[in-house]
Design goal:
It is a single chain. The chain has 490 residues and is an alpha/beta fold. The chain has 2 domains: 102 residues, Ribosome hibernation promotion factor-like (Double Stranded RNA Binding Domain), CATH 3.30.160; 311 residues, tm_1862 like domain (pyruvate-formate lyase- activating enzyme, Alpha-Beta Horseshoe). It contains 16 helices and 15 strands. Strands 11-12-10-9-8-7-6-5-13 form a 9-stranded mixed sheet, sandwiched between helices. A 4-stranded mixed sheet has the order 1-2-3-4, with helices on one face. Helix 7 runs parallel beside helix 8. It is globular. Bound molecules: iron/sulfur cluster. The site of iron/sulfur cluster has 11 residues, from loops. Iron/sulfur cluster binds next to loops.
Length: 490
């Protein structure tokens, strides 16, 4: 897609304008040399009446244009220049898009990944709920359904984060290996026999980094409250390797203060009664078993090489093991999924008794096998939207509340990812990570340590090499010097 920007205001960067385009054209890319027949032209100017924007769309669906000025908007909450610029530009683009497609995107013109952060920001500063709702619905053009979801999630987050102090931290341990690669996956995860030979060496190095992380946590006076072993598929490790990893964590990380110890089981075909026993005995109290769908046709279409029966069996084993919380992940918008197969999947996981259910919307990434060829990105994305709405309503009726939420780019139907939970089973790690409210130390290939200052205004990221072979080749430590320097600044 070609994007032409005439902006003399000093507000908003080109990335913002391109992100707006994705609201109606989620499959578009923005290469330097573009021969696409699709283009959007934006203007954003300062006028005597304040900021004014226009958006003109030329596309295979038709052409359309619209304008919006500062005088057209009465802001619910006093708003700074950058936000006014985002509002007039966003509203001009939405008007043009609505003329063309006949609908408004559910998240209005909000392009950020963390819409709930805005709701929480205002609620925590004493703004009344109805004012925050008006801000979302009137000023940001967010639908009433997503406004309610944001406000409910913000309240859950406020409650969860009230038990976290600036000295609390999380620990993330990465195991980027999977038995086979799913077609929608964009993670760096090794899934071939040649690379599996790296696992023993990888675990040795990982244990060393866990040791260094434990040391720096003690030196700097951090108090860990959550540990998360993610992947990849950590349960792909052998029983002996699992014991080794859990033992390293228990030995080096100060675990007395840890109230949530999560293990991403992920692929059900890797979970056996023996492995679940080892994981449980290693101190883990929260585990995930993920089907994504309980329709075999859908699993086959997304290249997930396990059966529906594998999932029911692993879920039943996990439920019997006595973990405090068992989580499951679903994805709306998958190829071959229908409203009926999605709603059956949801009913299945509710009936199994998962305390924590995360509903994702498919997001198509460059690194995944699934591209847009299967037609995910019709501009309206109605089916995925219906599935996500159905999930939210059904889970609410069954006693689950949303407690964390994030959005991704290029998501089918402009949907979001929401974690739902029965009361007391929320994952504090997910909230800490997603809201960037606490420091999380990470270990392993592709992992990123996120340092958050005491007042929450500074964030620094320290990334480990992306691929396991790079991680093994380069040992630069865990970034001890940068961690100390960051903490010296308060
Ligand atoms: S199991 Fe998860 S991490 Fe592994 S390939 Fe599939 S989607 Fe990717």
């Amino acid at each position: 897609m070609k994007v032409f920007i005439d902006n003399n205001t000093g507000y908003l960067n080109d990335y913002h304008f391109k992100s707006l385009c994705l609201l109606y054209f989620p499959a578009e890319k923005f290469p330097e040399q573009d021969s696409s027949s699709c283009s959007v032209s934006f203007t954003l100017n300062k006028t005597a009446n304040g900021l004014r924007a226009s958006a003109s769309v030329v596309s295979p669906y038709g052409n359309s244009s619209a304008e919006c000025g500062e005088e057209d908007i009465i802001f619910t909450i006093p708003t700074a220049g950058e936000d006014i610029a985002a509002a007039v530009t966003g509203k001009a683009f939405l008007k043009a898009g609505e003329k063309l497609f006949g609908f408004l995107p559910p998240w209005g013109y909000l392009t950020g990944l963390r819409p709930v952060k805005r709701a929480r920001y205002y609620l925590e500063r004493g703004f009344r709920e109805n004012k925050v709702r008006r801000l979302f619905e009137n000023d940001y053009n967010v639908s009433s359904e997503k406004t309610s979801l944001s406000v409910r999630t913000a309240y859950s987050e406020i409650k969860l984060l009230s038990s976290i102090t600036p000295k609390n931290c999380g620990v993330y341990v990465s195991v980027p290996f999977c038995p086979t690669r799913c077609d929608y996956c964009s993670f760096v995860s090794y899934s071939n026999n040649k690379l599996f030979r790296l696992i023993p060496e990888y675990l040795e190095r990982l244990a060393n980094d866990i040791k260094r992380t434990g040391s720096i946590i003690k030196e700097t006076g951090f108090v860990p409250v959550s540990v998360y072993i993610g992947g990849g598929t950590p349960s792909f490790l052998s029983e002996e390797q699992l014991r080794f990893l859990l033992c390293a964590i228990n030995k080096y990380i100060p675990m007395d203060s840890v109230r949530e110890y999560s293990f991403e089981g992920g692929r059900p075909d890797t979970l056996t009664a023996q492995k679940l026993g080892i994981i449980k005995n290693g101190g883990v109290n929260r585990i995930s078993v993920n089907p994504q769908s309980t329709c075999q046709r859908v699993l086959d279409a997304i290249g997930r090489k396990h059966t529906v029966e594998d999932f029911f069996k692993a879920a039943s084993l996990a439920m019997k093991c006595g973990f405090s919380t068992v989580n499951t992940d679903l994805i709306a918008g998958l190829p071959e999924d229908t409203f009926d197969t999605f709603s059956k999947t949801l009913d299945d996981v509710i009936n199994i008794g998962f305390e924590n259910i995360t509903v994702h919307t498919l997001s198509i990434k460059n690194a995944s096998e699934i591209k847009n060829e299967y037609g995910a990105f019709d501009p309206v994305g109605r089916l995925a939207r219906e599935c996500v709405s159905y999930a939210g309503n059904t889970l609410t009726e069954r006693g689950y509340d949303p407690y964390y939420l994030y959005r991704q780019k290029r998501t089918v139907g402009n949907g979001e990812n929401t974690g739902f939970s029965l009361c007391g089973h929320e994952s504090i790690y997910n909230v800490m990570m997603m809201e960037e409210s606490s420091t999380v130390f990470a270990c392993g290939a592709g992992a990123i340590t996120k340092l958050v200052s005491v007042d929450g205004t500074r964030i620094e990221r320290i990334a480990f090499p992306k691929y396991p072979f790079e991680y093994l080749e380069r040992d630069d430590g865990i970034g001890e010097d940068r961690i100390h320097l960051f903490l010296l600044k308060g």
